[in-house]
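Troubleshooting: if your tokenizer reports a length mismatch, compare your output against this known-good record of 333 residues.
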Amino acid sequence: MAATMDVLRALELPIDFIEFPPGEKWVRGETDKQARDAIDASDTTLFGSTSGKTTSIMYLRWGKQTYANVRPAKWSPGYRSPMAHPEGIDFVIVRENLEDLYLGLEGPLQELAPLKLKSRILRGPLDTSERGIYAIKVITERNTRRVAEFGCQLALKRKRAGGKGKLTCTSKYNMLRDADGFFRQIVEETAAKYPDIKYEQFIVDDFARRIVASPQELDVVVMPNLYGDILSDAAAGTIGGLGLAPSGCFGDGYAYFESVHGTAPDIMGKGIINPTATMLSAAMMLDYLGLTGAANRFEDAVRKVYAAGRSLTVDQGGSTKTSEFARAVIANL
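Known-good structure output:
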């Protein structure tokens, strides 16, 4: 985050920043409440990585109803991709961000006994006598339609900028016929209202293969929460790793931005973390704030550093420290 803030300050933008100290010792009690108050008082939030112990990230997500988690995967010359031909990889995963299996509706299997549930697959009653745990998957029309609408609008925006203008929907609708089938149905209905974009759909396991086999064919991909969480990491892998993967979470009245990766306490303080994901997340934030020119300058400067290949961090095959990478980006603004 410090490296990203250095670049943001170098851009000399009309933004007032409220900064909170990093570290787990700050995430409890009064400081966490102050963070939530600051979120409410701000136009947007640039969030650092979390181990999950802070309630602020929960507030940004569910409190602010940021239902569309946008995770771009765009290769740039200089990225250390494992793919033989990564040129042209440029797609976006739009992950539903609020429901699916992420509502914490879990418990002992015996809790389901009074419901006398019948399994469509087993063609009989669910055996709740075994020791086990259940988890409930929730797919609502409202959140699915909002995410589908967001994906369609993004596909149109990318088409106007010279992109493919294509929306892909993926889920496990062949097995989860009701839940994932409902997700597919709502996305399909929404996409039908946009005749200027192409629409396609794939079962999620087939889609996982396509990320590896033909990522250049993808544009905007809408999917339920769990699949998006997993497959966006795979998408990052095609371009060179999680250190290059930004994200933005959008609601109707608020958005926050963060790297896709989590914390890395094993390398904390060594000065070797790759700040690219956070920097590109910050560029997405500037675009959201209407500072598109500054966003483009920021992103272009990052990509120039990679194209030159002289100031890369360890994960990208170099030996440059985090702070040195930031200075190289600033020099290219």
